[in-house]
Fold this sequence. Notes:
Blueprint: H1 28-49, H2 58-69, E1 85-86, E2 89-90, H3 97-110, H4 120-137, H5 144-158, H6 174-185, H7 189-198
Antiparallel strand pairs: 1-2
Helix pairs in contact: 1-2, 1-5, 2-5, 3-4, 4-5, 4-7, 6-7
Adenosine-5'-diphosphate (ADP) binds near residues 176 and 180.
Amino acid sequence: MSKYQLDDSPIYIDGSDIPKNKLDITSSELIHEIENNLLIEAYEKFSHELNENTKFDEEYFVNIHKKTFEALYDFAGVYRTVNMSKGNSQFCLSEYLGSQSTRIFTELEKDKYLAICKDKVEFAKKIAYYQSELIALHPFYELNGRTLRLFFDLLSIFNGYKAIDYSGSIDDGKYIEASIDCVQYADTTKMEDIIFNGLSQK
Ligand SMILES: Nc1ncnc2c1ncn2[C@@H]1O[C@H](COP(=O)(O)OP(=O)(O)O)[C@@H](O)[C@H]1O
Ligand SMILES: [Mg+2]
């Protein structure tokens, strides 16, 4: 049983799993379709704007969530103020979101946005590590997974790789299994495999 009840969340329409939205949509199918379209547009926009001066800092990460979903949701680009868990995984307590986020992005900056990596093995390990940190952070009310995967796709492109191919791992539950290991056991082994297999040179 999740410690986080949908009913306690300020973002959902009462008694449903549909977030309150600016278009007053109450159909789950329609909301997913619109979210997917917004995400496709965001991939185009952010890949197009990407250049050698792009900084993969906290502001950029938050801005991806904001710009992608602000046409639909008031919570776009806003950190949650409630604690959240999924299954037995407790994400970062809301009071520590700011400090933990600063820690993660400061580390990524010191790693020169992964320009320090000498080969694909090292790059995949680093991506898995930072991805696992952001999965455990879970800073937004919703759309964390899609936002952080877009962020790491852009970071991969920035470093001479293609967007990461998660086909297989997302649909067959392996990505969630890897996420559980990251959040509950700080074990990134499964995530490293997923990332390594999904990475290819441009
Ligand atoms: N039981 C779990 N334990 C740990 N992490 C989980 C669990 N279930 C889901 N996750 C993580 O949370 C993400 C989903 O978060 P969510 O905010 O709903 O994003 P999205 O709507 O884009 O999928 C998944 O991609 C996964 O990384
Ligand atoms: Mg979700």
